Task: structure prediction
Amino acid sequence: MLITSSGNSNVKLYTKLSSSKKARDEHNQFTLEGSRLIKDAILEKSDIQTIFATESAFYRDMGFINEYSDKITLISEDVAKRLSNTKSNQGVFAIVNKNENKSLRNQTLKGKYVVLNNIQDPGNLGTILRTADAVGMSGVILSENCCDLYNPKVVRSTMGSLFRLNIYTENDFCDVCRILKSQGVKTYAAVVSKKAYDIRSVEFPSSAAIVIGNEGNGLKDEHIELCDDCVTIKMNGNIDSLNAGIAAAILMWEMTVTT
Result:
């Protein structure tokens, strides 16, 4: 059956999940848009509940969505336009169950981590996750009310890294530091300060975590004090700060190339 109305119950659910964190939390589901994201979700064995596809998208992508034939709903091009968050949609969308929330508690933590403290911009969060995946970070830790991991802008920006990374949520930053230190993971606060170590000169131990603060305010003084050391990105001229996503990329690269 071809759905031609945005009043269909499943289509309405998709719209709610796409636009509302409250709905995503209540249903424990989120949305995907586009062939690549859905293919990545399938490859990583995500719990896909529904796939919406236009007729043309179905035939284009049937090689990887056909195994979900019992969950595919055909939609009209007009409905696809209503569901889309992009200017030119690919005609394929999905509703997916969230992964179980991972806590740091009872985890064995070894390797390189990035701790995100109150990151609020979805684009920044998505970029950081994608970069963490690219450079081989052991995990990403979200703390202090970071923006919603399943916001469509975050999901889209990760380009599939969301499904491959170890992502932990531990909202209290004090708990994050306590847990990391109890397992021998040395913590480094990323700050703008002439007194901090130049990131290029730091020899990171085998288990270490870099802490990135809020886009506008950085890290609170009390949170900086909880970390073992402070590092900074030395800059030229009158530049004294970088976009959080760019800064995180530089810091993570330096952490991993010195291994």
